[in-house]
Specification:
mainly beta, Immunoglobulin-like, Jelly Rolls, six-stranded antiparallel sheet, five-stranded antiparallel sheet, 26 strands, about 5% helix, globular
């Protein structure tokens, strides 16, 4: 689980306060834009302006529902409204990563963006309002933890709920997108100042998190497992710190692609794989893959976890996706056909952690689309791990981890 510690002091917060230029004059492209401003445009699904809708800006590390002075300060000072043209200028925005959400009576939308120190021209962010989605889930806690004391917050958004005694929780109305659901508990802690005087502060203890793919107008489910996994075998399959020499690019006749090693950037350290996929036809395909050196029995696989992001897409109502597969590539002498188990993942424009479990792989259809034979057929004889560029474009992949094994042991096909 990704477990970032949230510490937002008032001094640091002072650099992230947003001052809004109100009134109908604050439109994108106007003289209201400054070198430290973001021009926000909010539209309805049909492209018409979303006038006079509530806008909320939060640092992407923000946790709603915490009883801290910092959280209260943010809630009171980073709430705005669009003008009659659906636009808003956010002035003097401190450098960092943010999530901006817009709400009308029945529609919602959110967008993530990073404001960097090297950015000298007014930035632009646009989002579309759509039907909200419902997210229900469960927090799995250790036996000595009281689930009813757990708060679940949507990190970077202004939503939080308390779990019940069984760890169940529900968000009835969230904007569509990829968001990290964070489970935490709060408690009073005694501190002593330099003069020896005791006082109490509210301390947040994160238990765990999980990324939810919230889809507009749909019910979505997520599980946050906070239990320790020390007993579960684990190893880093690929961190790309030594480049991409083990990865090969394959593609259909009219497609093309490449993979290179780059600095991960955007909040991640070290190297990552940069995968470029050009396959503008539904019949074309491009993949990067890595051989396991033989056949691996993965029937005991718990999960494969990796980080990914994509480049921007012009139509903000759509997502770019990749297809993750475990392949069974057999030679021509085998009586069994080659194939794969795969699943498809919408990839956001910021780094997110994705978890693939055996139950996530698609069931095969009658045509075995894409060579999909299903997990139960291929799980004993995996030869390759592959990532397809489903919609074309640029993708960044980092830190592929395997849970359920301490290493892969490959065998020859004859064994």
């Amino acid at each position: 689980m990704m477990n970032r510690v949230w510490k937002l002091g008032l001094a640091a917060l002072g650099g992230t306060i947003v001052a809004c230029s109100g009134g109908d004059s604050g439109v994108a492209g106007s003289s209201m834009e400054t070198e430290n401003s973001i021009a926000l445009t909010v539209q309805l699904a049909d492209g018409s302006p979303a006038a006079r809708v509530h806008v909320i800006v939060r640092p992407d590390s923000y946790l709603a529902g915490s009883d801290s002075v910092e959280a209260s300060f943010v809630e009171e000072n980073m709430n705005f409204e669009t003008d009659s043209t659906g636009k808003l200028i956010l002035d003097n925005l401190g450098y960092g990563s943010y999530i901006v959400e817009a709400r009308s009576d029945s529609l919602k939308g959110a967008s993530k963006f990073n404001y960097r120190s090297w950015q000298t021209e007014g930035g632009r962010v646009s989002l579309h309002l759509d039907k909200p989605g419902l997210v229900s889930g469960r927090v799995l806690v250790e036996d000595d933890e009281d689930a009813s004391e757990v708060t679940v917050a949507v990190q970077g958004l202004d939503y939080s709920v308390m779990a019940d005694g069984m760890g169940n929780f529900e968000f009835k109305s969230l904007p569509a997108g990829f968001f990290e659901m964070v489970a935490f508990v709060q408690a009073d802690s005694v501190v002593v100042d330099s003069k020896g005087k005791k006082g109490k502060v509210r301390v947040i203890r994160k238990l765990g998190s999980s990324v939810a793919n919230v889809q507009a107008g749909q019910e979505n489910a997520v599980v946050i497992d906070t239990r320790p996994q020390d007993s579960l075998p684990y190893f880093m399959f690929e961190d790309f710190e030594n480049g991409v020499k083990n990865w090969k690019v394959k593609h259909s006749e009219d497609a093309r692609g490449e993979v290179e090693s780059v600095d991960a950037g955007l909040g991640r350290e070290g190297k990552a794989a940069h995968f470029t996929s050009v396959n503008d036809s539904a019949y074309n395909w491009v993949l990067i893959g890595r051989s396991l050196g033989g056949m691996v029995d993965m029937s005991n696989l718990d999960s494969i976890v990796f980080w990914a992001r994509s480049d921007a897409i012009e139509d903000t109502t759509k997502h770019k996706y990749i297809s993750f597969s475990l392949d069974m590539n057999l030679d021509s002498t085998s009586e069994q056909e080659s194939g794969k188990a795969w699943m498809h993942i919408d990839v956001d424009t910021v780094w997110n952690r994705y978890v693939v479990k055996p139950s996530d792989f698609q069931k095969p259809d009658s045509n075995k689309t894409g060579g999909n034979l299903g997990w139960d057929v291929v799980k004993h004889n995996i030869t390759d791990i592959s990532i397809f560029g489903g919609t074309g474009g640029e993708f960044w992949i980092d830190d592929i981890e395997v849970f359920g094994y301490s290493k892969f042991v490959a065998r020859d096909p004859e064994e």
